[in-house]
Each structure stands twice: as C-alpha cells, then as structure tokens.
Structure to design on (986 residues):
C-alpha cells in the first residue's frame, strides 16, 4: 500500500512538478512490464522499447486520425504493442541468452528505422505532432500543470499493478517462475512452456504499450526516442537498479533513478553522467539485488 | 562488366577495412564473455580509451603513430588489469544482470570523464603522411590508410591465432574456455589466466580504437554508440571463439558496406536483418558451442 | 536596549526589502543538450550565451538582472524537453524560454508556450515550419532552406551541371535535400543521384564510393555538425573524390568552424553556403571571435551555434531592457518582430510577419590562411528570408 499512499501524497507534495511525477509513473509501468518479461518469465531483452514506442505511436496516430478519446486510445496502444509482441515473440522465444538479447535489440532497431522511414504517418524525425486528447470520460480536461495527467497515470498504473499481481498469483504466474527456475523440469511435468512464455511476453508488451500510450497522451507528442536503444537499455538499468523480479523494484528503481538523474542534471549538466554511473557501480558492488536487496539486508540485521 | 567488377572490388576492399576494426575491438569481448562468462558491456570504453591515448600522443606530443599505438595497448592493458583485479573479479559470481548494470555504470563514468578531459567533439586523427591519400595499385586506386589497416590487422590476427594455438598460454586458455573446472583441477591458475586474458582483450580493444579512430570516431559517446556493433560481432561469431568473430566481422562489415553501396536507402536495415537470419540459423553463433 | 537594537535592524530590513522589490530579476529558461553523445552542439550554445551575458551584463538598467535557469534535455527527447519547459514555467516561473537544438523538442514545446504565453526564442532548431506552430516562437538561428536553396541556384549558374546529393535521413537532412534540389533544378541543373544516409552510420565510405562512381560534377552533402562532419570529410579524402575532379558543396554544417581545424587539407576547396563564418571580416565578428578566444582559449573557434546563441541572448537583452525588466509576453513578441541587430554574422532581423530570422547568406570556400583552415567568405547574398515560407506563401 505504501506506494499508493506515496502516489496520492505526491499529488499534493509535488503539485508544481506533476509533469515530471507523471513521467515517473509512466516509467514505473514500463519497468513493471519489463519485470514480468525479464524478472518473472526470464526472457532476456534489450529491446523492450519496441513495445513502448509502438504503444506511443499507436496512441498518437489514433488520436490524430481516429478519435481524441483517451481510454480507447490506451486500448489501441496496448493492442498494437501486444500484436508486435506476439509476432516478434514467435521468433525471439526460440532462443535464449545473448542470442535472445541480440534478437530483441535487432527487432527494436528495425522498428525504429521503420518509424523513421514512415515519416508520412509517424512524422519521422520531426516527431508526431497535433495530438489532441479529449477530457477523460468527457469530464477531466488535461491541463497545463499536469494535474489530470498525473491522476490519470496513477489510476492506470494502479490497474496495471493490480492485474499483474493477480496474474502472478495465479497458477499461470507460478508456472512462469517455474519455467525461469528450471525449464527442463517444467517440460517434464508437461507444462506448455513455449505457449506460456509467449503469453507472458505479449502481456508484458501490452503493458509497455499502455505506458507508451500514456506518454503520448500526456505529452501530446511522440518523438523517435521512444523506440531508441537507449530507452531499452535505460529501463533495464532502472529495473535491475530497483530490484528485479519483485514488482516493487520497478517502483523504487524508477523513482530513485529518475529523481537522482533530474537533480544531478540540474546541479551539474555536464558531468552528471559520471555520478549516475558511480551510483550504479556502487549499487552492484555493495547491494546485490538492487535497492530492494539493500533494504532486505538492512532489515535482516 | 568492368564497372561491376570495379564495384565488387570497391565493396570488398572498403568493407574489409571496416570489418577489421570491428574484429580487433570485439575479439577481446568474445574472450571475456566466453571464458569468464562476464558480460562486459564496458568493453568499448577500453577501445575509446585506446583511441584517446593514441590520438592525444600523436597530436599533442608528436609521438610517432606506431609508438602511440603500442603505448595505448600497454596503458589500457595495465589499467584494465587493475580494474579486473579490484572490481570485475568481485562480480564473477554475480548474475548477468548485475554485471550489465555494473558495466553500464562504468560506461557512463568513462563517457563523462572523456568529455571532461577531451571535450565533446571527436578528436581528429591524422595518420602519417605516408598512409594518407590514395594508393595506386596499378589497375585502380584505393585509400592508403585502409590498405594499411587491412595489412596490419591480418598480421595481428595471425599472431593472435598462433599465440592461442601454439603457445603454452594459449593451450591453458583453450583448456579454461573448454572446461574451467577441469582446467583448475589440473593446476591451471585460472584467476591469473583471467587477468591476463582480460588485459590482453582490453589492450586489443585499445589497439582497435587507435587504429580505427579514422573510421569509428573517438568521442565521449563511443562506448555506447558502437556497443551494438561489437555485441553483434560477438553474438554472431559465437562466444569464446577467436575465429567466429573474425568470420562474423567479415560478413557483417562487407555485407553492410555492400548493402549501403548497392541499396543505400535500406542501408540501416541490412545488418539487423542479417543478424536475425544468422542467429536463427545458428543460435549459438557461427562458431559457438550450443 | 532591545528597542534600540530593533529599530535600526528593522529599518535595514525595510530598506533591503524595498531594494529587492525594486530589483527585477528576469528568469530565462535555457533548454540545451549538455550530456549524452550529442553534447558537442550544446557546448557551443553554452559558450555563446555565457559570453554574451558576461560582456553585456552591464548594459542592463540598474536593478534589473537576468537569471538563466539551465536544463539538460540530453538530446532529441521531446517528452523530456516539454516536461522541462513545463517545470520551468510552472515551478521556476521563467518569463522567457530559449535554447533548444533539436526540432522535435521545439515542436513538442510549441503548444505549451502558446498556452502559457511564454515567449520562446529558438537558438538552433532549424526546420522551416517550427515558427508557424506558435505565435510565441521567434527564431534567431537559421533554416536549412536559407542556405541550401540559394546554393542550388548558385551551383547551377557556376558550371555544376550534375550534382549527387548525400544527406542524413532525418528532418534537417531532408529539408536540405529538398531545398537544394528545388533551387538547383529550377536553375537548370540535374541531380545525378540522391541518397539519404542513416543518421548514425559509422562509415560514410560506401555512400561516397557510390557517389564517386556516378561521376558527378559535385557532391552536395548535409550531415549534422559537430560529430559526423569530420568523419565524412575524412572519407571524402580517403576515396579521392577531389582528385577525381568532384567538388564538395553543402550548407555550412560540413565545415563548421570548430571542427574545421581538425579536418586537415582534405577540406580545402569545399564550397558551402552558410550564415556565419568565424573568419568573417566584419568588425562585430572580429570583436566576437576575439572575446570568444579570450574566454575559452586561443585554440577554440566559435561555430555558428555559438554566434546564434550569442544573438539569441542579444534579443533577450533587448526585450528585457526595452521593458525595464517587466516582461509582458505579447509586448515582448511585438518587440521581437522587426528586431534588428548588428550580429557577428552581419545585419540580422526578425521578420515581423513570420518571426523567423532574416540574414545574409555567405558563399564560403575553405582556404588555408597562415597555416590555419578557414571558411573564407567569397560572396554575400544579403538579407535572405526563409525561402520555404516565401514559396509556400506564393501558392
């Protein structure tokens, strides 16, 4: 419950920084989706931005050409990303380890290049402009201060978190962990490993797509960076930094990483990368299991 | 007909230069990942450091090119050996993702330091007069530096192969890659072996950085921007192999050049599609063990 | 006893708060790229703004000061840029926004500055249509049409019949290609071939070999300044296009002043059209370059980015001084329209109609003077308006 109290409290505590707070919430959802794929299903990916970007573009293009309604836009974003997830998953899930990592990376890069080429619909390098979003359920207008945006993100994140918890507590979720821990045994007891992994991968893709859709709707702009290699890498960093395979790692990782980055970048725009790097190196050296791992050890004392 | 032949020669020659740089930088990464099972994403940072040392020695201190390269090799090998002993060694037992996080942290730090010391613009590299300009081969002219690059790379690769296949150190290294426990059981000091291999691999990367400064520009974003290329060479070639990355670098380098030359509009797509195809065909890489 | 201490303290406090009430600090949000692989351009902007502030702080009316609030967008990340702008407006209460290197970042900010009514002075982002996206945007930098379009007609009139175009496959590259092709073919030239190269390509050689094989009179090139240009030039030299009689032309990004000294003799003879050269022979420029070198080191050359951001600060100072530190958004925009300045790049003006820059374009040739490479200005096309807007207006 703590994250949600913090989330609601954040609305008042950071009332003048809500756009930033919304981006943290979006990143948390994105990291959560990765936690399902990488942390629970054990699928090695360095191309998760493919789904985030697909969702962002889908929501953006939907808003420009079809409808300004935000909720159906999110459904479109999640659906499009899930579709890409199924298609690429059919190929990617045949492999493992470094090969799997490189395949996810290759798919994401191909998608990014395709988005650049398809500038007639994506806006190419200039970015997708002219996204207008109607008030949510006709009542709550997206304001400049990001109040509506923040609460909207918080509610969507809550739904995402809830469904993920339900999913992981189900037999399906248990079998995912089983596959991660010992594929051979799961195959031996007759579990449909390939099918389960594909479903998990697609659900993760859909969640990432929804996070991307939220980004498109709250910023009302989509730039090519949503599909970038850097974005894929950063989300892995955030998740591992927070603590992987434990749901709340996504929350703490995204919040701490983004706030640290924001503060460091403001105080030393030219050298902040060094300090972020130092934080990561020290975390690994002194805190296995990310920040949550550190908290665990401190508690045990 | 003559033009087609001409084009073929161009592609082969130009692609070969690019491929050689990729190989020299990546081979060390293949060794560390194969031998120690360590995902060292910061490998490119050693290449970048080598590039900076080479170019700075040449531009600021007028050190001859060859000497600067040797200095870069030694300096980076020593620094990397120290890093391996003090930091990397502590993470050999850790999970791959922790190693990823750790080495990405190192990339960030290396990039920031490079920016602080050398500024954000790529350092210009001026090969000696003898190696710049065009080389006339009789039937056509080729860029002199690329020709030099190809020759040097072949010499380097040959000595590397001989070193691994024919020396005692090479034998121990191969034994450790094949079966680390068994190697330890017969009295091979794998910890020392790791350090030496790591230093050698990083030193080679530094050489690649210095030699290739003309093609892969030396600037603070180096380790991130070219990481994907290095990883491609390693994954397609197969982990722990010396020959694998060579074939991979050749096919990717020449293929990339060919595609950019022949169908430039899709120049950005080729390497990725080729990699997907190759990896689906040989998931463990061309010369990797499944 | 207490009262005796209290009274003077009270008076002092009153006096201080009065003085503070009189003092006007104008907060200006500067969004720039300080980190990441693309920080080279950001450094030039940082230097240009810093230099102007330092030299002209004294020109502000008494009690008025300008505070720059700097934020790092880390590269072309529109959602970060927009969020930073939002924060600068709502939290830091900036009255003006400036900086911005990347087109998508500027475009993402456009609706925001319209809604918040914060004048936004663009120091770089050069895609032509940006200024049409908000009445609160003014631009002091350039558009690629301004250089590439006149270069096209110049090329056709100066004996280049066949030109091969090579551009980076993204917004500015496509702008440059379209503008050049239009100017060139209208004046009677033929395009021998056109290639859009991937934005991050480690090796330019295959594209240049292809261009060489087509045997054109010249290659027209646009690659982003500050990283790719040196690599491109190197490949151009390696493949011997120059000795094959092929000229190299383009907008000035391929021979930016800060990279040129490192390029070596391969750059000699390159013809570019651009709005600024550090070698420009104007008093305002001589003073600017001297001040730049005094501040940042004798070996450092200011590039067009430094000059543009220097002028951007000049525009900001002008509106602050004219309003005595009390910024009214609409009045600011009125002041910016038609604003004139004797810039290091020559006379410049903000077009009252489009809020875009009007400036001289210079045809330059890379020469070696006293052992140092420079962009020598050989022809001037005075006061060029953005041709893209002019052409589209005519329709």
């Amino acid at each position: 419950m703590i994250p949600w109290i913090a989330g609601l409290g954040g609305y008042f505590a950071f009332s003048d920084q809500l756009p930033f707070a919304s981006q943290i919430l979006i990143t948390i959802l994105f990291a959560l989706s990765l936690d399902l794929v990488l942390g629970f299903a054990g699928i090695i990916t360095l191309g998760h931005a493919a789904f985030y970007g697909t969702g962002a573009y889908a929501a953006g293009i939907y808003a420009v050409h079809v409808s300004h309604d935000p909720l159906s836009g999110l459904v479109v974003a999640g659906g499009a990303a899930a579709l890409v997830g199924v298609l690429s998953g059919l190929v990617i899930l045949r492999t493992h380890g470094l090969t799997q990592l490189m395949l996810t990376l290759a798919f994401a890069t191909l998608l990014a290049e395709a988005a650049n080429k398809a500038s007639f619909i994506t806006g190419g390098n200039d970015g997708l402009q002219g996204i207008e979003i109607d008030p949510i359920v006709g009542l709550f207008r997206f304001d400049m201060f990001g109040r509506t945006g923040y609460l909207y993100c918080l509610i969507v994140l809550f739904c995402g978190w809830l469904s993920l918890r339900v999913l992981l507590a189900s037999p399906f979720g248990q079998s995912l962990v089983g596959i991660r821990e010992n594929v051979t045994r799961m195959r031996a007891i007759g579990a449909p490993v390939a099918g389960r992994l594909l479903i998990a991968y697609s659900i993760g893709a859909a969640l990432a797509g929804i996070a991307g859709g939220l980004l498109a709707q709250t910023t009302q702009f989509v730039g090519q960076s949503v599909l970038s290699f850097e974005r894929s890498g950063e989300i892995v960093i955030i998740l591992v930094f927070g603590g992987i395979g434990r749901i709340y790692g996504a929350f703490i990782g995204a919040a701490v990483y983004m706030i640290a980055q924001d503060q460091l970048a403001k105080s030393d725009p030219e050298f902040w990368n060094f300090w972020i790097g130092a934080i990561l190196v020290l975390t690994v050296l002194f805190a296995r299991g990310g920040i949550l791992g550190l908290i665990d050890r401190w508690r045990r004392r | 007909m003559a033009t087609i032949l001409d084009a073929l020669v161009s592609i082969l020659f130009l692609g070969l230069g690019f491929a050689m740089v990729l190989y020299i930088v990546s081979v060390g990464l293949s060794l560390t990942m194969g031998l120690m099972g360590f995902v060292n994403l910061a490998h490119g940072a050693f290449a970048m450091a080598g590039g900076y040392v080479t170019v700075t020695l040449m531009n600021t201190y007028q050190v001859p090119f060859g000497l600067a390269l040797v200095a870069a090799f030694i300096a980076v090998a020593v620094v990397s050996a120290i890093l391996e002993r003090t930091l990397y060694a502590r993470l050999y037992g850790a999970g791959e993702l922790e190693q990823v996080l750790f080495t990405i942290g190192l990339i960030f730090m290396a990039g920031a330091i490079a920016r602080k010391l050398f500024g954000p613009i790529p350092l210009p590299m001026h090969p000696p007069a003898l190696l710049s300009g065009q080389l006339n081969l009789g039937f056509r002219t080729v860029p002199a530096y690329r020709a030099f690059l190809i020759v040097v790379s072949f010499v380097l690769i040959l000595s590397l192969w001989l070193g691994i296949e024919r020396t005692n150190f090479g034998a121990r290294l191969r034994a450790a890659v094949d079966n680390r426990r068994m190697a330890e059981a017969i009295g091979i000091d794998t910890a020392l072996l790791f350090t030496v291999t790591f230093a050698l691999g990083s030193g080679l990367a530094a050489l690649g950085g210095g030699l290739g400064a003309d093609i892969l520009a030396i600037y603070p974003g180096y380790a991130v921007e070219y990481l994907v290329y290095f990883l491609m060479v390693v994954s397609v070639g197969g982990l722990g192999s010396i020959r694998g990355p060579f074939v991979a670098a050749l096919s990717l380098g020449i293929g990339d050049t060919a595609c950019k030359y022949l169908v430039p509009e899709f120049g950005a797509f080729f390497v990725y599609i080729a990699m997907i195809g190759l990896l689906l065909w040989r998931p463990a890489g061309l010369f990797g063990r499944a | 006893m207490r009262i005796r201490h209290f009274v003077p303290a009270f008076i002092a406090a009153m006096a201080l708060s009065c003085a503070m009430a009189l003092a006007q600090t104008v907060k200006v949000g500067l969004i720039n790229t300080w980190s990441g692989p693309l920080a080279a351009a950001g450094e030039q902007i940082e230097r240009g703004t810093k230099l102007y502030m330092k030299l002209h702080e004294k020109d502000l009316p008494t009690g008025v000061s300008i505070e720059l609030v700097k934020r790092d967008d880390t590269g072309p990340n529109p959602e970060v840029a927009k969020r930073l702008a939002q924060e600068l407006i709502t939290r830091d209460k900036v009255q003006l926004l400036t900086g911005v290197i990347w087109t998508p970042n500027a475009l993402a900010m456009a609706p925001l500055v319209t809604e918040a009514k914060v004048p936004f002075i663009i120091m770089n982002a050069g895609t032509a249509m940006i200024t049409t996206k908000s009445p609160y945007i003014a631009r002091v930098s350039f558009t690629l049409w301004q250089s590439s379009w006149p270069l096209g007609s110049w090329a056709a009139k100066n004996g280049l019949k066949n030109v091969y175009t090579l551009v980076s496959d993204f917004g500015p590259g496509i702008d440059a290609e379209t503008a050049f092709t239009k100017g060139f073919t209208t004046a009677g030239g033929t395009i021998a071939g056109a290639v859009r190269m991937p934005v991050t390509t480690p090796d330019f050689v295959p594209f240049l070999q292809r261009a060489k094989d087509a045997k054109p009179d010249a290659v027209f090139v646009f690659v982003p300044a500050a990283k790719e240009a040196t690599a491109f030039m190197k490949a151009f030299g390696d493949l011997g296009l120059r000795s094959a009689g092929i000229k190299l032309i383009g907008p000035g990004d391929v021979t930016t002043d800060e990279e040129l000294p490192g390029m070596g003799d391969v750059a000699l003879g390159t013809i570019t059209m651009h709005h600024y050269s550090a070698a420009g022979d104007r008093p305002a420029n001589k003073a600017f370059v001297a001040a730049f070198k005094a501040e940042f080191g004798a070996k450092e050359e200011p590039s067009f980015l430094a000059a543009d951001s220097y002028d951007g600060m000049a525009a900001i100072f002008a509106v602050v001084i004219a309003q005595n530190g009390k910024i009214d958004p609409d009045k600011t925009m009125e002041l910016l329209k038609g604003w004139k300045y004797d810039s290091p790049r020559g006379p410049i003006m903000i077009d009252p109609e489009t809020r875009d820059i009007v400036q001289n374009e210079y045809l330059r040739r890379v020469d070696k003077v006293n052992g140092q490479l420079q962009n020598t200005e050989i022809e001037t096309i005075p006061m060029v308006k953005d041709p893209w807007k002019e052409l589209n207006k005519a329709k």
Summary: Chain C touches chain A through 40 residues (CB under 8 Å).
